[in-house]
Write a structure and sequence with these properties.
With 152 residues, the chain is mainly alpha-helical. It is built from nine helices and no strands. The longest helix has 16 residues, at 7-22. 22% of the residues are buried. The model has no long low-confidence stretch (mean pLDDT 93).
């Protein structure tokens, strides 16, 4: 274990802080980026653990930021959950997040559909299927999709 005043340790820490200064990262993402830069695993673990202790990297903060960002981009809950899991956030952290509980997912699905396809509802089965696939890809569930495809 290197001491915190070692030049190699400080180099890894500075690199981590540089990454974190751009946007929030999950612990797994930060670890992966530092390892990808060629730093030794033990050194990366030491730096990441210290940054977690200092609350400079937090999966909870990352989760909140990521969810807010994806909602603003028009993604549904299942898409957001899957993306968070891929970034190493635990299901418990995802479930504990309160932002997802405050969203009107039905209205968001309808808003996303109208932005992409306009106010007019689909008239053919082919158009309806296309819009359903789009909303499903965006992470909306069947209830939300049905709501978005009903007359206002």
């Amino acid at each position: 274990m290197l001491s915190p005043d070692s030049s190699t340790y400080q180099q890894v820490k500075n690199s981590a802080l540089d990454v974190l200064s751009r946007r929030e990262h999950s612990v797994v993402e930060l670890r992966h980026k530092l390892l990808h830069k060629g730093y030794m695993n033990a050194l990366v673990e030491q730096v990441v653990n210290e940054l977690q202790t200092q609350q400079l990297v937090s999966d909870v903060r990352f989760c909140e930021s990521f969810i807010r960002s994806r909602i603003n981009k028009g993604y549904g809950w299942s898409h957001i959950q899957q993306a968070l899991k891929m970034r190493g956030v635990t299901q418990q952290t995802i479930n504990d997040n309160s932002i997802s509980h405050d969203v009107d997912w039905l209205a968001l699905a309808q808003q996303v559909r109208m932005k992409r396809f306009g106010r007019k509802q689909p008239t053919t089965l082919q158009e309806r299927a296309k819009q359903m696939r789009f909303l499903q890809y965006r992470g909306f569930n069947s209830e939300q999709i049905r709501y978005a495809l009903t007359e206002e």
